[in-house]
Specification:
Layout: H1 12-17, E1 25-28, E2 32-35, E3 46-50, H2 61-75, E4 81-84, E5 100-104, H3 117-124
Length: about 130
């Protein structure tokens, strides 16, 4: 089982991995797990988390690759999805343990992303 590294003792994902914090695990791989987030943005939204504490996608490319492969397993089962991660606070990262969001999408789900027409319309007040 994963043991937290000294720099990860305050990491909520490390606490989940060692069983010290609750989570609903939906899938497991040797290098990663998938859990349900506390506040899903669409039905079926999951987080894919590496078992090794890695602060972000740019820190350990091999860990990032294994984590992406796990996320790709989940995304392959969906007709449409976003697979998203962030690196750094300026990019909206709030938990500094690498994690990928696998977000199932449907036509008309009205979930805006910053680079989509839905977000532009929402910002201008055109979409309601």
């Amino acid at each position: 089982m994963h043991q937290p590294e000294p720099d990860s003792l305050d990491c909520v994902f490390c606490h989940i991995l060692v069983g010290h914090a609750p989570a609903t695990v939906v899938r497991q791989w040797p290098e990663a797990i998938a859990i349900r987030p506390r506040h899903p943005v669409t039905p079926g939204h999951v987080l894919v988390i590496p078992r090794q504490h890695v602060p972000d996608v740019g820190t350990a490319p091999a860990v990032s690759a294994h984590t992406m492969a796990a996320a790709a397993d989940l995304a392959a089962e969906l007709p449409a999805a976003n697979v998203i991660t962030s690196k750094g606070a300026a990019a909206t990262q709030t938990q500094f343990h690498l994690h990928l969001h696998v977000v199932p999408r449907t036509d008309g789900d009205d979930l805006p992303l910053p680079w989509t027409p839905q977000q532009t319309a929402r910002q201008t007040g055109a979409a309601r």
